[in-house]
């Protein structure tokens, strides 16, 4: 039996919470069944150029720390913000180095493009165009995805962050404003904006053409977080769900049918999005986890959560089954924030 999140407050029934995992050795044991190999992007510490990738193979239990630097002789740079995959290519977005770094399927560096102010995320649009969001530049870069070179820009004041696929358009988050912005992908201009809240960093689109985002209030000292749903066709806000917590995490996860939404607000919660009136249920109880990364393996359905600890020590990765049962835990690099399934 799972607990229900009632409108503006969490009602806690301890007896319904799944047991918290016990401390185990940091080396993970092999798991059975279908699974992906995982590249875990580790930001490192700002100004130290110690970003890296932790490699994990669940089936064999293989865990390789500093995998990228071991293969290439040095770190990819300062703050590995994200990784983008398209058409068999993999690009690392290295924030404080102002660089895009392409690697092959084995993690070997192939190419690099510099000159970005403070890149955050890359969104592949088609063979001719991709977008790169930016913390400092006041615009979104348009790049050639074949060469990674800049070819244009889209004016957007403030810090631009994660991209969300709409219907024929693309949405971009802007954490320091109260808006998410709609990009017309034909003429590459911002064609609409929707006022929601500050501190929105990422989002997903469900099976019903609704875009979901959460305000991660702990980053900007806001009073509380909320979930928002926007109709991708009409651009209307169709649901606002206050969470009455200041500890909601910015990354959202959908199941394979895209009809169940998972989010972290102290614990992991699940919301059935087939209706707009349901309430979230607690799915996984987390014990004092400083959530910094959240993803779901599309092959196995397993959930991966990164605990950044104090932001200077190694991160701890928690792995749960598709049904929310604890599987294992292991260490990764400093500030592990992304999971990429191969």
Structure, described:
This protein is globular. Helix content is 2%, strand content 47%. Strand 11 and strand 12 (139-143) form a beta hairpin. The protein has a four-stranded antiparallel beta sheet. A four-stranded antiparallel beta sheet has the order 6-7-8-9, with no helix packed on it. It is built from one helix and 30 strands. The protein has 342 residues and is mostly beta strands. Mean pLDDT is 91; it is low at 1-26. The longest helix has 6 residues, at 67-72.
Structural class: mainly beta
Which stretches of 5+ consecutive residues score pLDDT under 50? Answer: 1-26
Q: Could you tell me how far the N terminus lies from the C terminus, measured between alpha carbons in angstroms?
A: 34 Å
Q: Describe the global form.
A: globular
Strand order of the largest sheet: 5-4-3-30
The helix count comes to: 1
Q: Total strand count, please?
A: 30
Observed structural traits:
30 strands, 47% strand, 342 residues, mainly beta, 4-stranded antiparallel β-sheet
Summarize it.
This protein is mainly β and 342 residues long. Helix content is 2%, strand content 47%.
Helix-strand blueprint:
Elements: E1 5-6, E2 9-10, E3 38-42, E4 52-57, E5 62-64, H1 67-72, E6 80-86, E7 89-94, E8 99-103, E9 109-114, E10 119-124, E11 130-134, E12 139-143, E13 150-155, E14 163-165, E15 169-173, E16 179-184, E17 189-195, E18 200-205, E19 210-215, E20 226-231, E21 237-242, E22 253-254, E23 260-265, E24 267-272, E25 281-284, E26 291-296, E27 303-307, E28 314-320, E29 326-334, E30 336-341
